[in-house]
């Protein structure tokens, strides 16, 4: 996937910390999914539940420093005390907001061969992902490194669940291959969301099916990964 030269990439996703399973980094994602996709009145402040979950994990004894840093960024983003997302650049250059950590898809490349998945968000207006998010929208892109092409059928779709903490919009959307990004692989899916302006918290998770010519399709699942960014 080509990124314009003037794009501002903030921040670059760190590698999966050595000795720390992705399950630990993803452990607070269900609270975010529940807040964004639940039936409760979102105006009641579901971010409070997310903050409580993150603070409980932050106070756990023996928490690894890499996980502590990630949780601290989530907390300061949600409570508005310290940013956490990339700043809107000057001269209409797009922001590339990488999600907080890579995720793992077991057996996504083949038997015993796992794929590292990376997710990013692009607040509009921008050209990526095609056809490009407009002002008040955000584009999401997920790439499963090392995999073959996206299969025509996705029986267990990869989804993005997002919540705008400032205007109370929320949705769960399938990531699709409609934009035809990296048609020959690695498998790359995308979606454009009508988030409106404000602080957006998003979780990407679910399944992915790839198809290599002459071979049987491979279906695997990715653990949740979390993104935070600002839409103008």
In short:
With 232 residues, the chain is of the alpha+beta class.
List keywords for this structure.
single chain; 232 residues; six-stranded mixed β-sheet; disordered N terminus
Catalogue the unreliable spans: 1-14, 39-44, 83-92
What oligomeric assembly is this protein in?
single chain
Tally of structural domains: 1
Indicate the percent of residues in helices. 10-25%
Q: On the 0-100 scale, what is the average pLDDT? A: 77
Number of strands: 10
What can you see in these coordinates?
The protein has one domain (22-231). By secondary structure, it is α+β, with helices and mostly antiparallel strands. A hairpin with a 7-residue loop joins strand 9 and strand 10 (218-231). Mean pLDDT is 77; it is low at 1-14, 39-44 and 83-92. It has helices at 22-25, 29-37, 47-58, 65-78; strands at residues 8-9, 95-98, 103-110, 113-123, 138-144, 158-164, 170-174, 188-193, 198-210, 218-231. Strands 1, 2, 3, 4, 5 and 8 form a six-stranded mixed β-sheet that branches. The chain has a four-stranded antiparallel β-sheet with strand order 7-6-9-10. It starts with 7 loop residues before the first strand and ends with a strand.
């Amino acid at each position: 996937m080509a990124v314009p030269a003037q794009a501002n990439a903030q921040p670059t996703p760190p590698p999966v910390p050595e000795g720390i399973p992705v399950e630990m980094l993803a452990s607070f994602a269900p609270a975010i999914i529940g807040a964004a996709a639940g039936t409760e009145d979102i105006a009641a402040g579901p971010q409070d539940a997310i903050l409580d979950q993150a603070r409980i994990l932050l106070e756990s004894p023996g928490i690894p420093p890499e996980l502590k840093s990630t949780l601290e960024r989530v907390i300061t983003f949600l409570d508005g005390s310290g940013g956490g997302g990339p700043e809107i650049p000057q001269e209409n250059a797009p922001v590339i907001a990488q999600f907080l950590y890579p995720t793992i898809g077991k057996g996504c490349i083949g038997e015993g061969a796992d794929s590292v998945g990376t997710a990013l968000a692009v607040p509009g207006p921008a050209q990526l992902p095609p056809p490009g998010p407009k002002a008040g929208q955000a584009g999401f892109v997920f790439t499963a490194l090392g995999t073959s092409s996206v299969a025509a059928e996705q029986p267990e779709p990869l989804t993005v669940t997002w919540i705008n903490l400032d205007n109370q919009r929320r949705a769960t959307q399938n990531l699709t291959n409609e934009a035809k990004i990296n048609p020959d692989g690695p498998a790359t899916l995308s979606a454009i969301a009508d988030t409106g302006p404000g602080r957006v918290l998003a979780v990407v998770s679910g399944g992915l099916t790839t198809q290599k010519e002459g071979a049987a399709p491979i279906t695997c699942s990715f653990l949740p990964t979390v993104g935070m960014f600002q839409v103008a």
